[in-house]
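quick one, 265 residues, struct below
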Amino acid sequence: MMNKGYNLKFRGEKVKSGSNVEWKTFENMEATSVTVDNEGNPWITNNKNEIWAWTNEGWKRVQGIASKVAIGADGSIFALDDKLIGDGYGIWKYDSKNQKWHKVGEGAKDIAVGDDGKPYIIGATDKLLWPEKACPGSWSDDSSSGSRRMQITVHIEEPKSWDDAHAFCQAQGGNLATFRSQTELDKLTNYANKCIADEFFWVGANDKEREGKWSWTDDKSTLDFASWAEEEPNNDDPGEHCGGLYTEEGAMYDQVCDAELFFMC
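---
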């Protein structure tokens, strides 16, 4: 998609009924792809794979690089990588609040976004693909300690603080996700990576009531199995009283509870 840049034009008003529409050119701006956000403003990529968005103050450079951007009517913003990975491009979702991109998939040749924010892609085999709206699933732990059957939902639509994520899960009739064995941790990590790879997720571990005494939110039990990362928990920064699972490592870190992360219920 490293085309030369083309003049970016927009449609003007008709001079009179039945007349042709006049197309006007944005000065000093060339594009290789264009989309329009839910406020009617164009977003473009150019021949340098830079991302630009039109604002009331003119063109504004958006962090990151991409070969294409697609935006849904609900404001959800997705982009494709600037470089091919195998037969397709990596897929990224934009967190407008924190102005960060999060990788949510790969293998796309093209992308569009529906009114509800669901992305549709043309995959490596030229088939139309789309993800489930959420990532629900259930699995059983057959360890000797007993059987636990759980419904896990991965939430990547909006990062939240630990308290807000905890309240959200409880409002849905559940809790932040917990794990009691390596088997449960592996299943939880693998499942989260299918929704979005290599990210931090809030889980239901904390030592908010007593420093150093970590417990699970679902039954207040202590963390007999936690799979902490090396030298964790270390309480490096004030307020590191909440557990964040880093799915690339399958390990937990103590995190500042006000940080906004994805989460699992």
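Confidence is low (pLDDT under 50) at residues 140-145.
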